[in-house]
Amino acid sequence: MAELREHRLKRMKMRAWHRGMKEMDFILGRFSDDTLHSLSDADLDALDALMEENDQDLYKWVSGQEQAPAQHQPLIETIARHAGAL
């Protein structure tokens, strides 16, 4: 049975705010608060996949210290703009 969108958004929001690295809690938490409701299912899939990555790598990608893998690059750029990093 497919996960209801409402439940998915709640799960993803909780996951975004409880990462383990405070910086990524703040970056992904604020991003999820502001944008989750407006993301398409495909964008939510991409964000779910991105949140599988470890926080240290995510922070380097969002802050521009390292290049993100190609499959994550568009979303990383969106998150970085939202966080004011770019």
UniProtKB/TrEMBL annotation:
UniProt keyword annotations, A-Z: Chaperone
Superkingdom of this protein's organism: Bacteria
Record-level GO BP terms: tricarboxylic acid cycle
Pfam families with a match to the protein in the record: Sdh5
Keyword RNA-binding listed: no
Keyword Nucleus: no
Protein family (similarity comment): Belongs to the SdhE FAD assembly factor family.
This protein's name: FAD assembly factor SdhE
Origin species: Actibacterium atlanticum
